[in-house]
Structures are given as structure tokens and as C-alpha cells.
Amino acid sequence: MSLVDAADASADDAEAESGVPDAASKGEIKPPRKEEDPDAVLAHADASVPSLDEMRSALGWAFEGEEITGEVLDRYAAHALLVLDANRRMNLTAIVDPREVAAKHYLDSWRTTRLLPLLGRSLLDLGTGAGFPGVPVAIAEPQSKVGMLDSTRKRIDFVTECVRALGLKNAVPIWDRAEEHLARNKYDIVLVRAVSSVRENVRLLRKVRHSHKDLVMLKGPSWSREARAAEREAERLGFRLDTVWEHKLPGEMGDRAFLVYRAPGGHGV
To answer: In three state form, how does the secondary structure of the chain look?
Structure first.
């Protein structure tokens, strides 16, 4: 893994794969104006769920050589089984192979904690879906405060069940729309994973860009193309690409990158 200066980024044509807020800290969940149906077609209704041992073994493989405790991996395995079981009833993830789940969901999410100093900081996982990267981050960094936002009630209900089952005291599921929530709440860092392009994410946050210090996007190998396409608009709105951290997933599962954008008034991670 390496830190790469954004100015030296080269093009890559491969496609990318796809404080805790005041209201949330009081146990309130604000509803969005409109809800989409995530279950129009259940792609994995008949999929088998791996055993706990199989999932734990896959995580051990994915995290080989990483400085992570067995306790954290055990909790990741428990969350993974909750996700894969619920995935048979509602569309949460297209990734169901245990090793792919371990690398593409957990390792990719966990590595944000190696890039960002999170002790005592507040984060918002925007578009959390099944809880990525919010749940892996909250498990690995218990002294951080993690809000996990999604506009679909069924997904937030599921994430709420996971938070309770895992005993996560530092994680708060939030049912709301991003702009409306960030207009009322401030965070140190907003994390965005598998939610639209760099340009669209910047546009989404244009009205609430003072609500956080850093915008961190988890991207695939086409990050440089996306960053170039968004460069002018990002600068116009006050977002500055500060750092790109590239890394590889094991088993030739692809390249990934974290893009750290400084928001207006941000002073660094």
C-alpha cells in the first residue's frame, strides 16, 4: 500500500465496483420524504449462508499480514452472517462468496481506519446499505462515533438489528436523506462507499459542505478518471483533493483507493 500525491495520479480505465448527530444520539430517527423499494427482485433468495467457521476462515485469509485482532475478525464474521442471511430476504449485497465478502466488504472498509486517525472523532457513513463501511469501522475503532445513514427504511431497520446484536455502543443508524441530515448535524468525516461518482457525491454535498471537515470516498481503480471529471466542480464548491491512498485486495480481487477531499474549513484528518 502507498500514499500517492493526487497531482501524480495516472488514468485507469477499469470500472470501479460497485459527533454522533444530535437527533440520533437521542434515539430519534428522522424519516425521509420518500422510500424506494430495495426488494423488487431478490437476487439471492436461494443462496446458502456459510458457517461461522467458514466465514471466519475467509476473513483470516483476507486479513493475512494485517495488524488486526482476532476479536475484531470474530465480530466481522458475526456481522457477515447477519448480512448474508438477510440478503436472502432483501437486496443488501451482490457479493456472497465468503472470501469476496471478507476482502471487498471488510478489508476494504477496515483499511480506512489505517488511513484516518479516528480516536474520538465523529463520522457519517453516507448510504450505509448493509452497514459498510460503518459497522467494520465502528467495531475496529470503539472510541469513534459512527452515524450510519440510509434513505431506505428496511436497510436501516436491518442495520439497527446488527448494531444491537453486536453490542455497538458507538454506532447509530439513521433513516434520513443526506442533505437534510447534514443540514442539521456536523461531523468530522463523511465516508462514502459505492454511492455514485465523485462528481455526483460532490454535487450532493454542495449545500452542506460546511457540515464536515473531510469527505472520504472509497473507490475502485477508475478513481483517477472520476477525480479528473469532477475536478473543476469540486474546486468551485470548495472541495480540494488532498490525498489518494491506493491499495490492492488479496487474491487478485482488484485495486482500490481512498480519496480524501478537504471540505471548506477542513483542517485535515
So the answer is: CEEECHHHCCCCCCCCCCCCCHHHHCCCCCCCCCCCCCCCCCCCCCCCCCCHHHHHHHHHHHCCCCCCCHHHHHHHHHHHHHHHHHCCCCCCCCCCCHHHHHHHHHHHHHCHHHHCCCCCCEEEEECCCCCCCHHHHHHHCCCCEEEEEECCHHHHHHHHHHHHHHCCCCEEEEECCHHHHHHHCCEEEEEEECCCCHHHHHHHCHHHHHHEEEEEEEECCCHHHHHHHHHHHHHHCCCEEEEEEEEECCCCCCEEEEEEEECCCCCCC
